[in-house]
Write a structure and sequence with these properties.
Helices cover 49% and strands 0% of the residues. It is mostly helical. The radius of gyration is 20 Å and the shape is globular. The relative contact order is 0.13.
């Protein structure tokens, strides 16, 4: 056998496990990701497209594709559910909501985490739900492990909660 005989010691870095949020380093990493995700929402062109295109500030350009023309609302496109990259918010917000829930559920176990850091996680979870409900109406509060619970396993289960439920359970 000429192959490697060492065993790979895996350290998952593409997701946060519950035990990681029970450490000071894990909570700090989770809080950092709460701020970093803002770039994925506000730092890309589709966010500006949905807010600015068709206003007095600017319109679509010569090379603008349907994602930009449709949102312009000037009659050159047709705004539909499959246009203008609404996934830019949808896909980003839910993973961040799950990370916030992981912090909220597990951070106290570290024993050294100030309540202010857990409050930051609560703020970001509410903030993301606010963006989602303002954009899409009712959205799921259960990501697979129960309402507002940290989910560790892939899930295809999805039930939209009503707008009032999202506001009262996740935002207020």
């Amino acid at each position: 056998n000429t192959g490697c005989s060492k065993i790979l010691e895996e350290e998952p870095r593409s997701f946060f496990a519950p035990d990681y949020f029970k450490t000071e380093k894990g909570v700090q990493g989770g809080i950092t990701s709460q701020y970093a995700h803002l770039r994925l929402i506000y730092g890309q062109p589709y966010f500006y497209n949905t807010l600015e295109t068709g206003t007095d500030e600017y319109t679509y350009g010569q090379s603008g594709d349907a994602n930009f023309r449709d949102v312009d609302l000037s009659g050159v496109g047709n705004l539909a559910p499959n246009t203008s990259r609404s996934d830019a918010l949808w896909g980003t917000a839910f993973s961040n909501i799950n990370t916030a829930s992981g912090i909220i559920e597990n951070a106290e176990a570290a024993g050294t985490i100030p309540a202010s850091l857990i409050a930051e996680a609560r703020f970001f979870r509410a903030f993301d739900y606010f963006l989602l409900v303002q954009t899409f109406g009712g959205v799921p509060l259960d990501l697979g492990a129960g309402e507002l619970q940290f989910n560790t396993a892939p899930s295809r289960k999805s039930v939209r909660n009503t707008v009032p439920e999202v506001y009262t359970k996740a935002i207020f």
